[in-house]
Design a protein that fits this description.
A hairpin with a 7-residue loop joins strand 21 and strand 22. The termini are far apart. The strands form 6 sheets. The chain has a 6-stranded antiparallel sheet, with no helix packed on it. The chain has a 6-stranded antiparallel sheet with strand order 20-23-17-18-22-21, with no helix packed on it. Strands 5-6-15-8-11 form a 5-stranded antiparallel sheet, with no helix packed on it. About 30% of the residues are buried. It has 3 domains: about 120 residues, no CATH class; about 200 residues, Sandwich (Jelly Rolls); about 100 residues. Helices cover about 0% and strands about 30% of the residues. The protein is mostly beta strands. The chain is globular. The protein has 1 helix and 24 strands.
Length: about 475
C-alpha cells in the first residue's frame, strides 16, 4: 500500500500481518470515503478467507486469474438467477426457474452438448406443403367451383372425384370463422347422399415436388420421420381418413384422425416413420409424394391404419364418407408437413413468397381493372401478333396450354388497335421462363411493328397450364 499499516504494535509496508478477525474499521487510501476510492498495492492483496465486494464494485485493467486452478464459485441467491459454476470449464450453468438473461453477450464453447432442446427450423423450408393456409387462389379468386370439379382448385390443392357431381369446393365456403391465426380455408360440400362403389375415390390432395422432399431419403435405410399437422372442421363426426403415397401410388401409409365435435375447428397431427422400401422420387421435378385427405373411398382403396403398404390406399378401413351425407361439409387449413416427430407451430411465409411458390406451378395473369398490359412482341400481320409473356418465376416445366377468360387486344407502338383477338393460343418456343402467345383475329395492326397485349375491359385472365405436377 502507499502507507504503512499498524496493528497490535506492528508497523509494516511489505510484510504480511495476520488479521484473524478482519479489519473492522474503515480503510481509507486515496479517497475521502471507505465506500469509494481504491486500494493500491505494488504487489498483491492476499485473501485468506473471503472477499466481499460491494454492489457497485468493478474490476478495471488487465486481470490475471491464472492462480485459480482448483477453486469454484460459491452459489448465490437463486432469486438473482445465478448459481455456482466451476472455473475449469467443465461445470454446469444451472439457472433458476424461469430466469431472465440480461448478459449482453453469452459466450459459447467450441464444443458441448444441449439436453432436452427442441429442434425448430426457423430459417429453412420447414413446411413442405405449399399454400397450406389456403391463402392463394389464382384461378378462382374465392369463387365456388362447379360440381364437376376434377382438378386443381386453390393453388397446389387438387379436388378430384371419380364420379363427378358429388362435391363443390370453395375458398372460405360457408363463411365460417377460421381457426385463430388463419384467414382462409378450403371448404368442400357434398351434393348428394352417395354410396361409394368399391373403386370410387373423392379426395383433396397435394403432390409435392421431388426437389422438396429428397432430403426425406424415403426408400432407404436413412428414411426420415415426418409429422403432418392440420386444422379440420366438419358437420360430421367420427374417424376420418387420410394417407401419404409415393408417385407411383404403389406405396401408401393410410392413417385416421378423429373429429370429436361437429362444426368445430380441431387441430390434428400424425407422426409417420419414413418408408425404408419402395421407389420414391428424389431430387427431380417429378412427384416426390402425395398428401391426401379422403372424402369417401371405395373398399379397394382402404387398408390397415398406421402401416406402410405396397398398395394404393386413400384411408383406413372404416373411415367416414363425407359424400355419403347430402350437404355435409369438410373444411381444412393450416396443413403442414415437416421433418421430425413433433408438430411445431405453422410456418407462416410472407404472402409474396407463398405466391411465388405457387407460380412455379401456375403462371397466371389476372387483370381486374381495365387496360392492364402484358408481355411484348410484334404484329405479324394487320390481324395478328406474337406476344412473349415473361413468367414471375421459373416454372417447374414449360407450359403446354392456356386458359383465357375475358377479352384481349393489342396496340402497335406506331399506333393501331387490333380490336379484340378472336383466338389466343400457345406459339412455338415455350420455356420455363416465359410463354409465347399467337394472337389472331384482330384488326388494324401495323405489320412488323412492336406491340403488347392489353385487357381493355378488365376481369380478364390468362393461365399457362401444364406446369403443375
Amino acid at each position: 500500500m502507499s502507507t504503512a499499516i499498524t496493528k497490535d504494535g506492528q508497523t509494516t509496508t511489505t510484510a504480511r500481518i495476520p488479521f484473524a478477525a478482519g479489519i473492522n474499521s474503515s480503510l481509507t487510501t486515496d479517497s475521502t470515503s471507505s465506500s469509494t476510492g481504491s486500494i493500491i498495492t505494488s504487489g498483491g492483496v492476499g485473501i485468506a478467507k473471503a472477499l466481499y465486494v460491494g454492489t457497485t464494485a468493478n474490476i478495471a485493467g488487465t486481470t490475471n486469474l491464472a492462480g485459480l486452478t482448483a477453486s469454484s464459485a460459491v452459489a448465490t441467491d437463486a432469486s438473482k438467477n445465478l448459481v455456482s459454476v466451476t472455473n475449469t470449464g467443465t461445470g454446469n450453468n444451472v439457472l433458476a426457474t424461469s430466469p431472465t438473461l440480461v448478459t449482453p453477450i453469452l459466450g459459447t464453447p467450441a464444443s458441448g452438448s444441449l439436453v432436452n432442446c427442441t429442434d425448430i427450423n426457423y430459417t429453412g423450408f420447414k413446411n413442405r406443403i405449399i399454400n397450406g393456409a389456403m391463402v392463394i387462389d389464382q384461378r378462382n379468386a374465392g369463387a365456388a367451383s362447379a360440381n364437376t370439379i376434377n382438378g386443381y382448385f386453390l393453388d397446389r390443392w387438387n379436388v378430384t372425384q371419380s364420379t363427378t357431381g358429388k362435391v363443390i369446393a370453395q375458398q372460405n365456403a360457408g363463411s365460417v370463422t377460421p381457426p385463430a391465426g388463419f384467414s382462409n380455408y378450403l371448404g368442400v360440400t357434398s351434393q348428394s347422399a352417395y354410396s361409394v362403389t368399391s373403386t370410387d375415390f373423392f379426395l383433396i390432395f397435394q403432390p409435392i415436388e421431388g426437389f422438396n422432399t429428397a432430403d426425406f431419403a424415403w426408400g432407404t435405410a436413412s428414411a426420415s420421420t415426418v409429422t403432418l399437422s392440420f386444422w379440420v372442421r366438419s358437420s360430421l363426426t367420427g374417424n376420418f381418413g387420410a394417407a401419404i403415397k409415393n408417385s407411383a401410388a404403389n406405396r401408401s401409409y393410410p392413417f385416421s384422425y378423429t373429429i370429436s365435435s361437429a362444426n368445430t375447428w380441431e387441430q390434428k397431427s400424425v407422426t409417420i416413420a419414413g418408408d425404408t422400401t419402395g421407389t420414391w422420387i428424389g431430387a427431380t421435378n417429378g412427384i416426390g409424394l402425395y398428401v391426401l385427405f379422403s372424402l369417401g373411398s371405395g373398399s379397394t382403396r382402404l387398408g390397415t391404419a398406421n402401416v406402410w403398404a405396397a398398395a394404393n390406399y386413400d384411408a383406413p378401413t372404416g373411415s367416414t364418407s363425407v359424400v355419403g351425407t347430402n350437404g355435409a361439409t369438410f373444411y381444412i387449413t393450416g396443413v403442414q408437413l415437416e421433418k421430425g416427430s413433433t408438430a411445431t407451430s405453422f410456418d407462416y411465409r410472407p404472402y409474396g413468397t407463398e405466391l411465388a411458390l405457387c407460380q412455379r406451378y401456375l403462371p397466371c395473369f389476372n387483370f381486374s381493372a381495365a387496360n392492364g398490359s402484358l408481355g411484348s412482341g410484334f404484329a405479324s400481320a394487320t390481324t395478328s401478333a406474337l406476344i412473349n409473356c415473361v413468367f414471375p418465376v421459373q416454372v417447374r416445366t414449360p407450359a403446354t396450354g392456356i386458359l383465357v377468360t375475358g377479352s384481349f387486344n393489342a396496340y402497335t407502338v406506331a399506333g393501331g388497335n387490333s380490336g379484340n383477338f378472336t383466338s389466343i393460343a400457345l406459339a412455338a418456343g415455350q420455356s420455363a421462363y416465359s410463354g409465347a402467345l399467337n394472337c389472331t383475329g384482330g384488326t388494324g395492326l401495323l405489320a412488323a411493328q412492336g406491340t403488347f397485349l392489353l385487357s381493355p375491359a378488365g376481369n380478364s385472365q390468362i393461365q399457362f397450364t401444364g406446369c403443375e405436377l
